[in-house]
């Protein structure tokens, strides 16, 4: 049986890395959520991306079906080459955290990269059962390059 490494660049098998979060285990911290979201984009798991985005995030769309179509088109048109986590700002017990990362992608056969500082919140959404979960809140692009 061939083991695929996780798209999040951890060099771990996907099933043991981000796959467990894609199957429903809550991400334990902002970095794990960041990695699992990158991996979800790479694998076209757009429902995971939507479900881990705060509804009040600037990236959230009010109509799920059109948001889903938009994300699927983006995932199909993009190769997610590498994720490098540059810095994580979060301590256990905090309900907000930041992850600065560099993503390298390919679109239309053209490689490009960007660096972003993403903000994450630990909260319980209305109607959510169980413990609070981490959600992507927003990101600030820091630089672009090849």
How would you characterize this protein structure?
The protein is of the alpha+beta class. The chain has a single domain (19-145), classed as Nuclear Transport Factor 2, Chain: A. The protein has helices at 19-22, 30-43, 46-51, 64-76; strands at residues 78-89, 96-107, 110-123, 133-145. The chain has a 4-stranded antiparallel beta sheet. A hairpin with a 2-residue loop joins strand 2 and strand 3 (110-123). The longest helix has 14 residues, at 30-43. The termini are far apart.
Topology of this structure?
Layout: H1 19-22, H2 30-43, H3 46-51, H4 64-76, E1 78-89, E2 96-107, E3 110-123, E4 133-145
Low-confidence stretches: none
Q: Assign a percent range to the helix content.
A: 25-40%
**Count of alpha/pi helices:** 4
CATH class term? Alpha Beta
What does the largest sheet look like?
4 strands, antiparallel
| CATH architecture name | Roll
Proportion of beta-strand residues: 25-35%
The helix/strand class is alpha+beta
Please indicate the count of domains: 1
Number of strands: 4
Mean pLDDT metric: 94
CATH fold category name: Nuclear Transport Factor 2, Chain: A
Distance between the termini: 35 Å
Strand order of the largest sheet: 1-2-3-4
What characteristic shape results from the CA principal axes?
globular
Radius of gyration: 15 Å
User: What's the SSE pattern?
Assistant: HHHHEEEE
